[in-house]
């Protein structure tokens, strides 16, 4: 007998909760992030508290779990209800923290998620000065994907005075000095 959509998603959440295997957790979280791409699953994922699971995983030490969690949030936050939930659950700060990840996919998903979460009410959080400074650095990256995304963020989500303030502040700090190579 075939499981229904809700029952299948519930089985994934249960597997994530009961397994001790890091690899199994990664695989299950990757599956949940992929299911978050389909609007047909939004209600089920809310019902199963997967948004909270993704938010919780953003602070994990395992970079793969963080990557899949931010990817899942990125997929979910286009939905108005999910966006409001993430904002009300204080999700912006852990998403901003993902900008410092060494994992390119995590950073790209975090930038995209911040774009999707920007509303007139949340703009002060999603475009806070440290975020704008970070986007300025990313816009200078040799990584075209990251540089283009950061440039888009600066042009479409930040005001010219915000960008100018971040530029001026960056001139007077050590932020942006490259770290030594290993």
Order of helices and strands: HHHHHHHHHHHH
- Fraction of helical residues: 55-70%
Going by CATH, what is the homologous superfamily of the domain at 2-102? Leucine-rich Repeat Variant
Tell me the total number of β-strands: 0
Largest sheet: none
Oligomer: single chain
Task: Note the gap between the termini.
Answer: 54 Å
Mean pLDDT level: 92
Q: Which of globular, elongated, flat, extended, rod-shaped describes the shape?
A: elongated
Give the CATH topology of the domain at 2-102.
Leucine-rich Repeat Variant
Uncertain segments of ≥5 residues (pLDDT<50)? none
CATH architecture type of the domain at 2-102: Alpha Horseshoe
Task: Using the coordinates above, name the CATH class of the domain at 2-102.
Answer: Mainly Alpha
C-alpha Rg, in Å?
Answer: 18 Å
**Number of helical segments with 4 or more residues:** 12
- Beta content comes to under 5%
**What structural category characterises the helix and strand content?**
mainly alpha
Organism: Tyrannus savana (Fork-tailed flycatcher)
Protein name: ARMC7 protein
InterPro entries: ARM-like (IPR011989), ARM-type_fold (IPR016024), Armadillo (IPR000225), ARMC7 (IPR042462)
Pfam families: Arm (PF00514)
